[in-house]
Design brief:
Blueprint (H helix, E strand, L loop, with lengths): L29 H18 L4 H4 L2 H23 L4 H20 L12 H19 L13 H20 L8 H13 L7 H34 L5 H39 L41 E6 L7 E6 L1 E2 L4 E2 L13 E2 L11 E10 L4 E4 L4 E8 L3 H6 L1 E4 L4 E8 L4 E9 L25 H11 L5 H15 E3 L16 H9 L3 E3 L1 H14 L4 E7 L8 E5 L3 E9 L3 E5 L11 H4 L39 H42 L4 H18 L10 H8 L2 H15 L6 H19 L4 H9 L16
Helix pairs in contact: 1-3, 1-6, 1-7, 1-8, 3-4, 3-6, 4-5, 4-6, 6-7, 8-9, 11-13, 12-14, 17-19, 17-20, 18-19, 19-20
Pfam family, one: TgpA_N
Organism: Frondihabitans peucedani
Protein name: Transglutaminase-like domain-containing protein
Length: about 800
């Protein structure tokens, strides 16, 4: 061991010529590589099947085909040009930048092909943010914004890694990992209802089994050919016998695999039919909190009276073309009652009505029975976060200069048919709705309705006066549908309509809380408007067993041809009940407006009071409700200094640079981390002899990473000769003596070997440029099946 302590000699003159062994990889021909590329294309296409419900667009199909071709070209270039992993990574990054905009962000591509700065910005941002955006948006997404980027990254990286593994690794079966990862990712990011899950899964399984069988047969054939070359003396008869036996084995293997697949397919079909899971399939989007929460906004029903006050009552709110006369233009659907307000969604329980998602392309309403309708809406005086819609929405298209802004801020709840635009809409906004108007029962079918199974939050603080009045309405009536009709008919017969906003109208308080509804049913005359009657009607339907909710919107019988102008006076509220026969059915609980009698003239017990000298103040109308959240008043903060804005801009630029640098450097850092972990594991081995051989393995790995080729079956002495210098030879002899000597290894000798290895690794870097040292650090030659796993010969 004395020689290991000497000063290290220079190895600059060490020979670095390639001593490459012959291997099966060097005999890859172009037709063979193209055939494997085609087979791998099929595997990647099968792996991408679960992503189809996520996108459902031709842009996705183009992306899959083009990206697999691009990734295959990179992998083939690496095979035939013998490129290192660094150059393959560099080619992948360049392909990502050149083709990513056209394939993954087509809306930002110049002429549909060339990348742009905005496109590259969205492309890079989509790598980090596109995954979560896919989970917070309604499916399918098509080519919306940069949501194709996750699929592009998975397919590009998977193709490059998978095909390179198949053509350059000893274990080509590992090439199946990228298609499987793509398949699982499609399930995780996809909808709760998968597209052809059994067929897609069985096809991928069949392709994977055939891939494994084929590559193992190929390795067997290569091994037999090598054996035949070593036994040339047996003659051509032996060669023919081996080849025919190889063909027989291949036939049996393929036939057995196909038979196994057929049995597995039959068993899977039976199992999925007989043992179908009863619970709803959980996917990642079920755990993501949606970005729009309707509970952050005031109940739109509480602003009902604002439309009945001047000047809103006579002002044009919306101009609608294509809406049949008398149909309802929905503002919002409210299904949660807490004794104070009817609201959209509940803060006590998680309900589907409170979950809003973005709609990038369209909603699939093919299961809804109804009539297709197309409506154009132009906003005049209306404003608010709730976007008026009709029926069950399929698509919405905004027009104007800010169309893309409204489109990006649009959210929809398909359970209730309620739409919202974050930031609100105002005058000048125009949009077109494509929707399906669900089929409604005829008047004669209403009495036969029975409650459906929809889930709505249970109302609380229901007034006792409402229950007692309801009992009187339905007394002696049988049948749930008939009892509901009797309850609404009784309220329409006894009720009078008054908004309480004019001098000639009787007093009628706004609101629909428990106290206001109690007053509605206990006053001598039932006086209110659609705000109270709709709330009372929904609560009565709930008491009768029907899931119910309130619908706020505009309704008018005044139209000019196919165009209707809704004014504030056209505001109304109705109810919807879920039925087993028709689903959600719209019912009108509002009484027909008629003259309200003066109860003071008909009441004989009324006592005349002397007129007071001081007249009471006049009745004030209800204050206007602007449907906005209350805000505290505070002084405006002084403007920030200019240097803070400069620092913020610099920090933002630095953040983007760090993000891009992190994405580019992540593979290199992973390679360095793997090497450090390997070095620590070798140096901490419990046995001194293993630590010493681990030190030699570490040195040989450094030699490989520095580009010095060694024979596949080279001994330690031969490796030292390839490196050059006397110190490498001394290290080889010391390690050989430790391995083959009868006595145990001294732990101190192992420590000295590792010290010498560290010095010799540093010596390999001397005289190299920074770029050459970096290439050695990130080289994967020693990681991918490196030479020297077997104990070398003496």
């Amino acid at each position: 061991m004395t020689a290991l302590g000497q000063a290290p000699r220079s190895v600059q003159g060490a020979p670095r010529q390639a001593l490459r062994p012959r291997s099966s990889r060097s005999r890859i021909r172009v037709p063979f590589a193209l055939a494997q590329s085609g087979a791998f294309f099929v595997l990647m296409a099968l792996g991408a099947v679960p992503f189809w419900p996520v996108y459902r667009s031709t842009a996705f199909l183009v992306l899959i085909a083009a990206t697999v071709v691009i990734g295959s070209a990179i992998a083939l270039a690496g095979v035939f040009l013998r490129l290192s992993s660094f150059w393959i990574l560099l080619l992948t990054v360049v392909a990502f930048a050149l083709f990513g905009t056209a394939l993954a962000v087509p809306s930002q591509a110049l002429y549909g092909v060339l990348p742009t700065l905005d496109g590259l910005r969205e492309l890079v941002g989509g790598v980090a943010l596109g995954w979560k955006q896919l989970l917070t948006i309604t499916l399918p997404v098509g080519a919306y914004q940069a949501l194709l980027v996750p699929a592009f990254v998975l397919v590009l990286v998977g193709t490059v890694v998978g095909l390179s593994t198949a053509l350059r690794s000893r274990r080509a079966e590992l090439a199946l990992v990228p298609p499987v990862v793509l398949f699982v990712a499609g399930i995780v990011f996809g909808p709760a209802e998968a597209a052809l899950p059994i067929v897609a899964g069985l096809l991928l399984l069949a392709g994977s089994v055939l891939w494994i069988v084929w590559w193992r047969l190929r390795r067997r054939r290569i091994a037999i050919d090598r054996l035949l070359r070593l036994t040339r003396g047996t003659g051509a008869v032996a060669a023919g016998t081996h080849r025919s036996g190889n063909r027989a084995v291949a036939v049996r293997a393929v036939a057995g695999s196909l038979a196994t697949l057929l049995v597995a397919a039959a068993f899977s079909a039976v199992a999925t039919t007989v043992l179908a899971p009863g619970a709803h399939r959980w996917v990642a989007r079920d755990a993501i909190v949606k970005p729009f929460d309707p509970r952050d906004y005031v109940s739109p029903l509480s602003g009902f009276r604002a439309y009945e006050q001047s000047p809103a009552v006579d002002r044009a709110q919306l101009t609608v073309t294509g809406l049949p006369t008398g149909d309802l233009l929905r503002i919002a659907t409210l299904d949660t009652y807490d004794g104070v307000d009817f609201t959209v969604g509940s803060d006590r329980v998680s309900e589907a009505s409170g979950t809003f998602t973005r709609v990038p392309t369209s909603y699939d309403q093919s299961k809804v029975r109804g009539t297709q309708t197309s409506v154009d809406v132009s906003v005049d005086g209306y404003s608010g976060v709730w976007l008026p819609t009709v029926g069950k929405l399929e698509t919405v298209d905004f027009s104007g200069a800010d169309a893309s802004t409204y489109r990006d801020s649009f959210f929809y709840n398909d359970t209730t048919g309620t739409a919202a635009v974050v930031g609100g809409v105002g005058r000048g906004v125009s949009y077109r709705l494509q929707a399906v108007e669900p089929r409604q029962p005829t008047r004669s079918e209403l009495a036969g309705l029975t409650p459906g199974t929809a889930s709505v939050p249970t109302p609380s603080n229901i007034p006792a006066a409402l229950r007692s009045t309801l009992e009187g309405y339905v007394d002696g009536v049988s049948g749930q549908g008939a009892r509901l009709q009797a309850a609404l008919a009784g309220m329409r017969a006894q009720g009078y309509v008054s908004h309480g906003v004019g001098d000639d109208e009787p007093v009628s308080r706004s609101g629909h809380g428990a106290d206001r509804l109690t007053q509605l049913f206990t006053d001598k005359l039932m006086v209110g408007d659609a705000e109270q009657y709709a709330a009372a009607g929904a609560l009565m339907a709930d008491q009768l067993g029907f899931p119910s909710r309130v619908v706020l919107g505009f309704r008018s019988d005044d139209s000019t041809g196919s165009t209707t102008t809704f004014r504030g006076s056209d505001i109304t509220a109705m109810i919807e009940v879920d039925t087993a026969q028709f689903g959600w059915v719209t019912l009108d609980p509002n009484p027909t407006p008629r003259k309200i009698p003066d109860v003071t003239k008909n009441d004989e017990n009324t006592v005349s009071r002397p007129q007071s000298v001081i007249q009471p103040p006049p009745q004030e109308t209800d204050p206007r409700n602007d449907q906005s959240q209350p805000q505290s008043q505070q002084d405006n903060a002084p403007d920030s200094p200019a240097w803070i804005a400069v620092l913020v801009a610099a920090a933002r630029i630095a953040g983007w640079v760090a993000l891009v640098a992190g994405i580019v450097m992540a593979p290199f850092l992973a390679i360095v981390a793997l090497k450090i972990r390997r070095r620590i594991r070798r140096r901490r081995a419990r046995d001194a002899s293993r630590r010493m051989t681990g030190g030699w393995d570490e040195f040989r790995d450094s030699v490989l990473d520095h580009g010095i080729d060694t024979p596949e079956t080279a001994t330690r002495t031969e490796v030292a000769a390839a490196v050059g210098g006397s110190r490498a030879g001394v290290l080889a002899r010391v390690v050989d003596r430790s391995v083959f000597a009868p006595e145990s290894t001294d732990p101190g000798d192992a420590d000295r070997v590792w010290k010498a290895v560290g010095e010799m690794r540093s010596q390999l870097d001397r005289g190299l440029t920074r770029w050459q040292r970096f290439k050695a650090q990130v080289s994967t030659r020693s990681l991918r099946g490196y030479h020297g796993r077997k104990p070398p010969k003496r």
